[in-house]
Amino acid sequence: MNFSSLKLSGESLAVLNELGFKEMTPIQAESIPALLAGRDVIGQSKTGSGKTVAFSIPLLEKIDAENRRLQGLVLCPTRELCTQVAKEIRRLGRRVPALQVLIVCGGQPIGPQLGGLRMGAQIVVATPGRMVDVLMRARPDLEDLKMLVLDEADRMLEMGFENDMELILNELPKTRQTALFSATYPATIQNLSRNFQIQPLRIEIKDDEGEKTKIEQSYYEAEPEEKPRLLSRILRRMDPEAAIIFCNLKITTTDLAASLAKDGFSAAAINGDLEQQDRDEVLAKFRNGSLRFLIATDVAARGLDIQDLPLVINYDLPKETEVYTHRIGRTGRAGQSGAAISLVSALEKIRMTEIQLSSGVKPELISLPPKGDLPGEPRLPHMQTLFIGGGRKEKVRPGDLLGALTGEAGGLHASDVGKIEIHDHFSYVAVARKVASQILRKLANGRIKGRKFTVKLLD
Prior knowledge:
The chain is of the alpha/beta class. The protein has 16 helices and 18 strands. Helix 6 crosses helix 8 (162-171). It is globular.
């Protein structure tokens, strides 16, 4: 579809023509007509697919330029993205007279942002934490708000902004239109949509190559005493970013984690014997990418939702086919490819045959990888986890931590900050390993929300 086929204002069509925008991308072709028609939308497509234009054009079409009150709000996870989005909206809206697009985000004084809101802006592009501060301090008039956009909603939820987002959504007029754009569609997105959208149109744009989930299933034959060394060789050769390694017994998870750690791998066990805080720490590190290999029992791994998991390994075969199916189903999600490997002893061969017959899929038998020509030391994860001794009960919010890390005190780029998890009395933040020690020194001597908190790096 061409942009010229849309019922747009002359100003919008002229700007699109000047910018050389002719054919719409798939997400634009599906989203723009629905948003122009007033529908709530969930738009899912990969980064770089044109989502910003997909919501900016309808947003600009709905703005009354003569009215200086807030009419459109776009929430983004980071100030860098806020800057990019605001720049694109201004570019697309350059023929709209008196258009004011205001950026409201942390890392900068709030005073000028409050002043800009008082002077009048039709569109605000904001991070959730700073927008909550603005709502609490200024109590802006929101009656004219027509459209809310949650851009990179999955990233905002991943960074721990769920409470801030819900607070903002509850403050806005119920008659607003809500557009939610995301690269993935986890359960948290579904819950947010269910609570705050009205009969949304879900649009999912898949890669041509990723229409079908593809899980490559294979197995090695190995006796129990051979499995630890074989696993080490497999992980060195495949070098996946992350993997869950399933065992049937708690003692096996502990022994195997110790064996892998001794070989230099970033690995930890999770089982029912762990204290809650230790469990929270292990899972936080695995979710945020600062722990590569999680050795788990089925019970301990329940409820663990990891996006883009490339590999699952059955160190022990489960007793039931349903459990095998559930295990390997943790990889190859959302059109991504994945791999599932089983280590099968002589006693487990009959179980593998049962799994093959029941599932209708025959995993490929792989020969043992050669001992020579293996990579050197295992790679460390790109991220490392900061423990901060303050959480919800201390009024610490994700925006406070992000602001401390990317503001003058921390000096990090937002791309160096990963997942943020806030618990009642402590928080976990993933930061790039290359700057982790430097950030630890800065935060140990600095303050968060004007207070000193315990800060330490987790191994």
